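Collaborator request, handled under Task 6.
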Amino acid sequence: MKKLIIILGVVALLTGFGIGNVHAQILDSPPVDGLFEDGSGFINMKPVPYPPLRQADVMWQKRLWREIDFREKINQYFYYPIEPHNHWRSFMRILMDGLKEGSITAYDISATDEFLVPLVYQEVIARQVDTFHRVYNRPYPPYEEYDTVIFTEFDPTKVKRIRVKEDWYFDKQRSQIMVRIIGVCPVMIKERDGEEVTEPLFWIYFPEARQILSQALIYNRHNDAMRLTYDDAFWKRMFNSYIYKESNVYDRRISEYATGLDALYESERIKNELFEFEHDLWEF
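Structure tokens returned to the collaborator:
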């Protein structure tokens, strides 16, 4: 009888240790928010290398400037999510994080959109701090006027457009028209006196930023299992945009000689000319 009691006690003691270990394992391991432990997907991916290109093979070249509006449905993955989650970050947050880490260099806005004057993260933030002087009346007698100063800090959610500078060229070695994005410029939308005002912030040299963009996921509205990055979005032209400038002898934008519907027609004309040029290269 004593042996039976001892055996049962030992079994109960071992069982208790086993249950404790199971609970310890469950508590020590973090919860898996998804089907697999590694939900990062393409986080460690590298950008697709550009095809080799010789200057002698470029028989035609055209520089275009286009604008991408985040408020269009097809472009909303550039703007959302506002708060990062599930390895997703907005395009502007990725750029600001890259500037803060020093992996991306910002360049000052110039009249020719060239990469001339580099900026550091602190300079970019300091330039977006607005100061407004306003005069108000006190709500109690004698209703005298008083001056106040309003400080507005940088708000990345107000960046709702980006400008893209790109070069289209014909490679006679491949007999193909191709494109390379040269620079990207975030554009902030502000309201002043009831009117919408656009303010370009800085230029980013796109080939330098591709390493960061190829590690940042975007939301794929068609399939969550097919993970895409911002570099894929630019590489595969997964966005809608309109042309606001082409290389010309006057170095002027479309808005400087056309407005309203005429400006839209002019943008479409430039796009159609590019298509027709490629089509006319071949004879059937």
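The cover message to the collaborator said: "The CA atoms of residues 101 and 121 lie 9 Å apart. The chain is about 30% helix and 30% strand. Please let us know whether this matches your experimental observations."
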